Amino acid sequence: MFPSNVTAATQVGLAAEAPIVEARRLGKRYPGVIALDDVSLSLRAGEIHALLGENGAGKSTLIGLLSGLSNPDSGELLVDNKTRNFTSPRQAQDLGISTIYQEQTLAPHLTVIENVYFGRELKRGPFLDERAMRRRVESLCEEFGLSKTDLDLPTGSLGALKQHVVQILKALAFDARVVILDEPTSGLEDSERQMLFDHMRRMRERGVALLWVTHRLDELFGLADVITVLRDSRWVAHVAPTDQTPDSLVRLMVGRSRNLAESSTVHDGREGLSDTEQAEVLKLTEVTRLPLLRDISLTVRQGEILGIAGIAGAGRTELARVILGADRTDSGEVFVRGRRVLIRNPRQATKLGISLVPEERKTQAILGSMSIAQNISISSLDDVSTGTIVLNNRKEKNAANRFVTELRIRCSGVTQKIGTLSGGNQQKVIIARALFNKPSLLIFDEPTQGIDVAAKTEIYRLIYDFVDKGGAAIVISSELPELVNLSDRIVVMREGRLVGELTGQRRNTTGGTDNELAEKIMAMVAGVTEQSRVAEETP
Amino acid sequence: MSVRTRLTQTLAIDGLPVAAALALAVVFFSLASPFFLTQENISNLLTQSLFVIILAAGMTFVLIVGGFDLSVGAATGLSAATTMLVLMNGGALPLGILAGIATGMAFGIINGFFIAVMEINAFIVTLATLSIGAGALQVLTTGTQLTGVSLPAFAWLTKGSILGIPTGVVITLVIVAALEWVLLFTTFGRTIFAVGTNPRAAFLAGTPVRRLTFSVYLLSGTIAGLAGVLLASHLNSVQPGLGQGYELSAIAAAVLGGVSLAGGRGSVWRAVIGALFLATMAQGLQLIGVDPLWFSIVTGASIVIAVAFDRAVQQWVIKQLAAATTKRQIFDDSDASASVSADAPTTSATRSSVRNTK
Amino acid sequence: MIAITAPSQRFSRLLANPSAGAILLLVILIVAMSVAFPNFFTGINAGNVSNQMVFVLLLALGMTVVLITGGIDLSVGSVMGLSAGIGAYTITSGAPLVVGLLTTMAVGAFLGLINGIMITKLGLPDFIATLAMLGVARGALFLWTGGVPIIGYMLPEYYVISGLSQPFGFITVPILIAIVAVVVVAVVLKFTSYGRHAYGLGSSPHAAVLSGVPVARIKVIAYMISGLMAGVAGMIMAGRNTTVAPTMGLGYEVAAIAAAIIGGAALGGGRGSAFGAVIGALVLSITANAINIAGVSSSWQQVVTGGVLLLAVVFDRVSSLIRARSARLATRLAHA
């Protein structure tokens, strides 16, 4: 047991010197969401500090604050024991804090050397000092596995690992003392991963402080010096890897969530499901769309909720898009109610009875400046018009009013603009839009993203209602407790492949608890292999 | 509520600023010149502005869907030329009209294909078709005089009158009313708004985005063809360079009327008011002795002012919306927290102690 | 597998280097012209082509810089006319030639500055801002001249500067000016931090912001370069035509954009070079020359320019689609 205070780091006893960066009780709120609550952290020279947590645990927000992308609402950030307020990433960089983001932040048309010095070129008189820049990059590159021929290629043509290395070089070329790596191993092959770890060790030897965000628990051991775990936007634990196993870390990450209790009450109220074989609604056989979907085979039956687990970037949303026809498959077959189909676009999917409730409501779902009624009817205009041409306002209003009542959408009226509703009510409108199509399969992509707890429960109820009335649902979610409680079956995706299938809590008769299941999934998601689990359990 | 807030709120009502500006311009010019409010001047003003009004109505569709059409002026000019060409070579009037409209449609089809199907930047595509159209007009008009059609029915299209109203005005009214009806009361119009508001959301919701975009350019081209036929009837002669700059006026009219360049906002009548405002300025300035050549400057400048103004107002609206949303969500949260209050202590307890699993 | 994909990869690599495709096009064009018209490959005709291409080349150079930063400038034709008009006027009102020429260039750069300010400070979309400038500058020229061409500024030296008199054979002063402009733009793009920032900004605005590049300043300077180039082109054209008609430069933006895109600049930004602009301008000028030699009415010129622009963007689009697809499918090889 560790004492319950934020200076636990010193107890770990790995580094005695003063931290370069110290975050003290940082907090960040967005409208309606607490993204980070009271989180503290210290980064020390020559130390690899791992940051763990599920999606939405607050890791990205914390990185944003440390790298100068945003400002904290509470708490303070100290660099070399001085309080700092960053107004731009540049300021953080000038203080020696460089961040290697998960998404592409290099200019793809510029070469490696050009990217390394982009924004801070070395000059001789009015001209660029290409030779000095080349010399400096060359002195670093071979150590980090870049050949001299790579240096003159546009970074857009390099692989994922090399692009990471370019970002590392960019940090090192400016003598960064703190390097933040946001899931650097995602998209890397195993061998590349090992090389990246070597690079990280090399940076550590140079006395750099590293903050390493990762999902893959098996990677941590032997590399990380200190581990901080976040959960539900809060700081949970500060531990040394030597005291931990992958399973114990999973337990820290998943914890006991309040959502769990919430959703189980809904669950209890449901009627049980008959065990008779239900009709197949959707079947995929070996569906592939490069680069993120490889040989996906699955079936969804009537009255069933299929959960899809995996980290962001594992190919879950891509799978939903392919089913909806928003992207074409490269190969593989799709069957809807037993008939082989080629879905070319979402319109066709809609006609086949497949609808999507997309992730990222604001950019992919709502028509912000349009009314609730208009948002509900947009997928089913044929039903609210005369002869599919002339709109029938009365039909539209009636239908919208029906959904507002049924789904308990809180609004001043169906003419209210959807943009002025709260997140939960916006999501209900989008579900109403999908239901209006009378679909036989509904795909929910992160259905409770950015929604308050009470509204979440209502969304779960809507999903159950839909399935109980004979629909089939696919639920994609990063919130494991949610997924465990909602689903009949859960498939786990990693790097574009299905890596496992489990029975969900909704029909679980084996008596396993929610947490065990969640931990099992988390282990699969994170790529903890069976062998490593067995190896741990045997002693 | 402060005066400033109230003022901004009023300005945020789409179409109101330009309607007020139109009224002000009318009042100003009637005071400045005794000739402004004469019947002759007004009918003159309307006839002059017909073409821009029609084009602005078509442009409204393109802008609402989030696109852009620079080729309408050239399409108008070329359509006028083909109409004249058919009529001069003894073609029947319906054939002439058809030729004009078909020319416009050809522009629409080409633009639509490259923009909707090939997904190439609308500005560049329509800039290229503008160049091709204007060049084709040049080719058609060098060496041949396109003038002197003596069909009375052709002249009647713009110069005749129905119930004392010039035919051109009646036709324009019909076109404008029909387009406004399509925009506001049909499924087609509704989907245009949806696609313009959020193309990704509209696509995922099952809207045929590609087909719709194509149709909108086809519509804009067809409208330009119609405008060309009327223009030919009005002038009874076609010169090289005819229609040049109409695209600028049409865009200016639409933008002045509060049609958003970002898509998703606008209406035909507001664009028409924008066009009327521009026409009033042109006519009025001329009446009080300002060089009519100022017009092109006024048009260009009004685009800049209207867009900058719209941007400022929209930013204000968004800020207000955000403020309202935050309040509402806090309210929701307090609702929600009542139901989870039992859990709250446990979670905070979790935070304050390091949970070790050993 | 590899044997099958190798040619398509090579093909996409060829497309990825746009100047290679453009050079190929240019070579085909030249060969076809020499076969079709024996008098194409003569010194006199070469001189004609080079003297004609100066305008498009200068405008395309400026346009290339703007395109590299991810913008576009529709106003170059009008800016060219207005700056020439003002320059000519200062000479007719008694200013020395040098002052007149400098005024022409300064007006061009100033109008570019206004474009840049509208885009960065007022937040107008680049197309709209420069489209408005197209209208306003053209309108101002018409208004100010009253539709009557400006004359009486042709001092003797102006004949030399505009290339009307050719003391050194077909290597005229405008060609020298163009060469200097090409070299300067090439140096700025390749060897200064401004050029580096321009490419990076167009390639990824996000990366530019994260790297602390002064985005607004880079954009404003790009529009100023484009305006300056339009001014220089206007200065030469005023001398070449010996009058400044209010329609001077009308439609030249189409040729400039076409030349820049043929030369490998892309609408998305991040690509393009001064050398590419030369190739693009050459392609356009030789096409124009072909129309001329073939005895086709020069009225077709505008149609052809528009057609070439359309072809260029279609080619650009298709090649980028091929590239994106092969990049996506290449992951199969990497993972196999």
TrEMBL record, chain A:
Domain of life: Bacteria
Keywords: ATP-binding, Nucleotide-binding, Repeat, Transport
PROSITE patterns on file: ABC_TRANSPORTER_1 (PS00211), ABC_TRANSPORTER_2 (PS50893)
Chain ranges of the ABC transporter domain: 21-257, 276-520
Coiled-coil zones: none
Record-linked InterPro entries: AAA+_ATPase (IPR003593), ABC_carbohydrate_import_ATPase (IPR050107), ABC_transporter-like_ATP-bd (IPR003439), ABC_transporter-like_CS (IPR017871), P-loop_NTPase (IPR027417)
SUPFAM superfamilies per record: P-loop containing nucleoside triphosphate hydrolases
GO MF term (any one): ATP binding
PANTHER family: CARBOHYDRATE TRANSPORT ATP-BINDING PROTEIN MG119-RELATED, GALACTOFURANOSE TRANSPORTER ATP-BINDING PROTEIN YTFR
Name of the protein in question: Ribose transport system ATP-binding protein
Organism: Cryobacterium levicorallinum
Automatic annotation (TrEMBL), chain B:
Principal subcellular localization: membrane
Topological type in the membrane: Multi-pass membrane protein
Keyword Cell inner membrane assigned: no
UniProt-annotated location(s): Cell membrane
TM segment ranges: 16-37, 49-72, 92-115, 122-141, 161-184, 214-233, 245-264, 271-288, 294-313
Keywords for the protein's UniProt record, in alphabetical order: Cell membrane, Membrane, Transmembrane, Transmembrane helix
GO cellular component: plasma membrane
Feature: compositional bias, Low complexity: 337-350
Highest taxon of the lineage: Bacteria
CDD domains: TM_PBP1_transp_AraH_like (cd06579)
Pfam families, sorted: BPD_transp_2
GO molecular function (one): transmembrane transporter activity
Region annotation Disordered: where it falls in the sequence: 337-358
Name by which UniProt lists this protein: ABC transporter permease
Organism per entry: Cryobacterium levicorallinum
From TrEMBL, chain C:
InterPro entries: ABC_transp_permease
Subcellular location: Cell membrane
Broad class of where this protein is predominantly found: membrane
Presence of keyword Membrane: yes
Record GO cellular component, one term: plasma membrane
Keywords on record: Cell inner membrane, Cell membrane, Membrane, Transmembrane, Transmembrane helix, Transport
Pfam families, per the entry: BPD_transp_2
Transmembrane segments: 20-41, 53-77, 97-119, 131-155, 167-189, 220-238, 250-267, 274-294, 300-318
Source organism superkingdom: Bacteria
One of the record's GO molecular function terms: transmembrane transporter activity
Topological relation to the membrane, as annotated: Multi-pass membrane protein
PANTHER family: ABC TRANSPORTER PERMEASE PROTEIN YPHD-RELATED (PTHR32196:SF21), ABC TRANSPORTER PERMEASE PROTEIN YPHD-RELATED-RELATED (PTHR32196)
Name listed for the protein in its UniProt record: ABC transporter permease
Native source organism of the sequence: Cryobacterium levicorallinum
Lineage: Bacteria, Bacillati, Actinomycetota, Actinomycetes, Micrococcales
